[in-house]
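DM from R.C. (forwarded with permission)

"hey, sorry to bug you on a friday — could you get me a structure for this? deadline for the figure draft is monday and I only need the backbone to look sensible"
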Amino acid sequence: MPSRDKVLLGTAGVVGSTVLAWRTLFPWIGEDIKFLRQSKEARAIIDKHIANGKMIVDLFEEDVLRTPRKPFIIFEDRFYTYELVNEQANRVASLASQWGLMIGDTVAIMIGNEPAFIWTYLGLQKLGIIVAFINYNIKKKALIHSLKSVDAKILILGKDDEILNAVDEIRDEISEIPVYVQGKNIKRPRDYLPWDELLLVALPVQCTKISRAGIHFGTTNCYIFTSGTTGLPKPVIVSQRKVLNYAGLLLVSGFKEGDIVYTTPPLYHSIAGGLGLMGTITAGGTIVLRRNFSARHFWEDVRKYDITYIQYVGEMIRYIVALPQHPLDGIHKVKAAVGNGLRQDIWHKFQMRFRVPKICELFGATEGTTSMMNLSNRVGACGRISPILNRFDLTPKYIIKVDPITGEPIRNKDGHCQQVNRGGSGLLITGIPLAMQHFKFYKGDVDMNEKKVIRNIFLDGDAYFNYGDLVRLDNDYFVYFKDRLGDTYRWKGENVSTFEVANVISGLDFIQDANVYGVHVPGTEGRAGMAALHLHEGFTISDRMLEDIYKHCSDNLPSYAQPVFLRFLKEMIITGTFKQRKVEFVNEGYDPSLIADPLYYKDDARKTYFPLTHEIYGHIGIKSKL
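My reply, with the result:
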């Protein structure tokens, strides 16, 4: 259904086609023009590769021929050229060719952030073998599920002892899968195979494209798992085409052949292994890896290696901003920071203090049908959805009205949905191209596949991808992440966004991070707000601090959104991709018999937060004034 803005666009054509006329009628159109200009070159590159049938492994091999001696990977002060990485990848392919696997079979790799991850992936891709990126932090049930869900024929482990120990715990449950272990110094049980020794004698002969004949852009390239913060990890099917689309995001941000990207998020994540690695290969650039993210060494590495692009996810930037001031803050060659999950409350602090010219916050999902990126430096925004951009987009984006608690779209008498107006919030959905109408987003999970599709939105029979995220659209068509559906809770008849409450509380200078969620209180409707807080180093809980939190929340939040309970953490619990974990906290509630951390409740009579004792805990509920 055409919106009022699209009707106005038609009117503008009658009035005049000059830029001045357009800008007068639509002040926001300049941002559309900027985005279209910046994305045009990147889109042309990706489209050209697709038209020529060039998969990501083909592009890598072209990089090797064009710039063999150029550093492709920098890791722990060692430079790995394109030529060297290709030689190692050829050894992997030679070894893998002896396994008798077919194109479309899966090999799982459980390797940390090191060059071996990259050349193992590329070597398997030379044979058309699907690679499953296994999270090296998971254990037991989650690990067993991950391997079996992708029907892994082979498992290749990195050299970290923790990885081998995790697999050793479940070895009996995956006894049918041959396991290769990297690292000469690892003590190997008898049923593990020595990867390094076998790789050393494998011939580094270049594979011909005949070795992977038959793969196409719809063929699966790899499986990247969802984080599994709720339920078990789910393997997302990443096609050869989608890998190039990941790469295109880094190109859209301006990344070129002469650039160097600093990648500290785990390579098993789509931001690092997708956008970072694939973007580097497509541009022919250089990627700097660090085994684990370190806020203390972050800028030291950036300066040492002349980094021009940095990647981030989740709360990484918060840890960087928490560093003590340093004379060299802002001395670097960084052109842009690219990633997602940068909270609005620290965006400006980070950009101003460290003099980062451009922050390209993006929005997307590993299994999503499209993505968007903020190319305008608009603080807090993760992209744009305007009538003009949607007109040029093969997979248009819409924000529809939804019940934030149930997650169900609000439908009219005809059973269809309505878009939110500018200034409003709703559920983000994106078009599913006709060719993908029956495409599976996850391997094997039929029910989960259908849950990601939302139907009959504007017309009977249409289908859209459901991101499960609430976003806000401002008057200039910029989009801001608001909350995950399910993280929003209802209290005193009102809907509360955990993300927005956390942004407010984190504005206090002694709070490093805030994790907000809703907890059940017996005899009351909905869920009461609770905030798990992590203080900056050097701060301790005091009466003055508790009074300041109370006043700050009272001044900046409506009464129903002010946290009823506080929990002070020694350290913030996060996932491997720097996302806050909430499930455990929600289950523990505010029960002092289950929680060793200091607990407090909102005391309006004293205008502060007061210690939550076992005795008070027993009286909270229907008889209280919560």
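R.C.: lifesaver. Residues 1-16 have pLDDT under 50 and may be disordered.
me: no worries. The CA atoms of residues 95 and 102 lie 14 Å apart.
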